[in-house]
Amino acid sequence: MKIIIAILIFSAIILFHELGHFLLAKRAGIKVNEFSLGMGPKLFGVRKGETFYCVKLLPFGGACMMEGEDQESKNERAFNNKSVWARISVVVAGPIFNFILAFLLSIIIISIAGYDSTTIHGLIENYPVAESGVEVGDKIVKINNERVYVGREVDLFLQLNPGESFDLTYERDGERNTVTIDPKKDEESGRYYAGFRGLTLREKGNVWDVIKYSMLEVRYWIKTTYKSIAMLFTGKVSVKDLSGPVGIVDVIGDTYEQSKSVSVLYVFISMINMAILLTANLGVMNLLPLPALDGGRLVFLIFEAITKRRVPEKIEGTIHFAGLMLLLALMVFVMGNDIYKIIMH
User: Fold this and answer.
1) For residue 153, what pLDDT is reported?
2) Which of 69, 65, 77 is nearest to 18 (CA)?
3) Under 8 Å CB-to-CB from 10, ≥6 apart: which residues?
């Protein structure tokens, strides 16, 4: 059951991403030869008009294959024969649709479970935050001059920077104050605590609150993804810590198993939360300026828009192909690492 749920979540996210490319391609008058879900050999499909819609064997992936996208074509409706701005709109549509999906799913979650604001719900006595003069009901505005909007941002900062001093800006009755917090070590657990209690408690609000915090939910996951990527480049995490499809299926499975013992509603909320994380993550990753990704294609298109000169298709195609090979090699490594971690767990 958990594998089926994972495949359904993956499929929905990828389908929505490719739908973005597809709809903007159709709007720009570009000929779409194939719209597929999955990778590898075709399982089944149907042709409607000029486009072949199909499902492939491996459920991890998908494609919107356009005429003249990776090769020369004299067809006036080919991708490469359209204006640079039309091509940019098609390429960027996939990631944007991922963020739209994350927003729509966030509306569902926040309508049901509420949102986590930065209002302080509780404090632990004799710990730094309580001793600094901060009170229950105050609203956290910034940490080290970085604006925060949801309680999990504060929680994430404390997890990523254990024991580090930080400046906390809070708001009370319209006035802002800043204090310096030195987390205190708990001798029994060995962990550092600032002294917050219930940072991620959820509150219910009106329709505007739902829309507002749904947008902030998407912002949180985009920000978290970028921070994770930055940690990879700074060495705080290694490539071995990455998870591919196998690892993600395992995480979804574990989340499902833990949730089903509570209630069906909790399973639903947990799976939607997982989908929000994954679709926001996919949107960010695809915007990275790496060959073969949407972000890599955007680099060439932006260069063309600025200089009015197009990079020769053979050169661009070679670069994207090389990038694709490297990404596939990374995927194989990550998949092997996922399997190893599952076996050794």
Assistant:
1) 92
2) 65
3) 59, 60, 245, 248, 278
The one catalytic residue among 18, 153, 217, 316: 18
Q: What is the pLDDT of residue 331?
A: 67
Residue at 289: amino acid letter: P
How many angstroms separate the CA atoms of 311 and 153, rounded?
41
Task: Tell me the pLDDT tens digit for each residue of 232-245.
Answer: 777 666 656 555 55
> Catalytic annotation on 171?
no
Residues 230, 225: Cα–Cα separation, whole Å: 9
> Which stretches of the chain score pLDDT less than 50?
none
CATH classification number, 116-201, choose in 2.40.128.110, 3.40.50.300, 2.30.42.10, 3.40.50.790 = 2.30.42.10
Alpha carbon distance 207, 43 (integer Å)? 44
Domains of the chain, residue spans: 116-201
The letter for the amino acid at 21 is H
Backbone torsions φ then ψ of 271, nearest 5 degrees = -70, -35
Q: Which residues have a Cβ under 8 Å from the Cβ of 192 and sit 6 or more positions away? A: 158, 162, 163, 183, 184, 185, 186
CA distance 5 to 263: 16
Determine the Cα–Cα distance for residues 65 and 4; give it in Å rounded to an integer.
Answer: 27
Tokens 């219910």 belong to residue: 204
118 — phi, psi (to 5°)?
-95, 15
